[in-house]
Design a protein that fits this description.
- It contains three helices and eight strands, in the order E-E-H-E-E-E-H-E-H-E-E.
- The strands form two sheets. The protein has a six-stranded mixed β-sheet. The chain has a two-stranded antiparallel sheet with strand order 1-2.
- The protein is globular and about 55 Å long.
């Protein structure tokens, strides 16, 4: 950590800080709860798929809050790709989001990751940030309306 002093305050600059992340999350939860009285509080939503040897084969993490859900991270182990695990993760995530009262899901994918996967599952591109994180890539943002089947 590098400290930078500016009048009455000191800024500490560095890499990951789990304690800071937890504090920021807790403080923002308080602000958000006060601003959205009557709405379900934000909750984490995770799905994991374990193989027959007990190892993680795939996982998805995100959140639900009121009528919205968001997928933050999706990963499928390389040797299990093509087995339908990504689709299963998405189906389970969407079903739980619906059960929690969500009407839509948001996610992002860099062009070198899996934007086509989300499009194949009914996600619509709502925004594209060109040149991120590299000049020849883009950060693609998606939304999907959830319906009860």
């Amino acid at each position: 950590m590098k400290d930078v002093k500016h009048e009455l305050y000191i800024a500490s600059i560095g890499d990951g800080d789990p304690e800071l992340d937890k504090r920021l999350s807790d403080e923002l939860d308080k602000v958000n709860a006060a601003a959205t009285t009557g709405v379900d509080v934000a909750r984490e939503l995770t799905i994991k798929i374990i193989d027959d040897s007990g190892e993680l084969a795939a996982g998805m993490s995100g959140w639900s809050w009121g009528v919205a859900a968001g997928i933050g991270m999706t990963w499928v182990r390389e040797d299990t790709r093509g087995d339908g695990l990504g689709s299963r993760l998405l189906k389970e995530f969407e079903a739980e989001a619906l059960a929690r009262g969500c009407t839509h899901v948001f996610t992002t994918s860099f062009t070198f990751q899996a934007p086509g996967f989300y499009e194949q599952h009914g996600y619509k591109e709502i925004f594209r940030w060109e040149g991120v994180p590299t000049p020849d890539a883009a950060d693609v943002h998606f939304r999907k309306e959830l319906t009860k089947s």
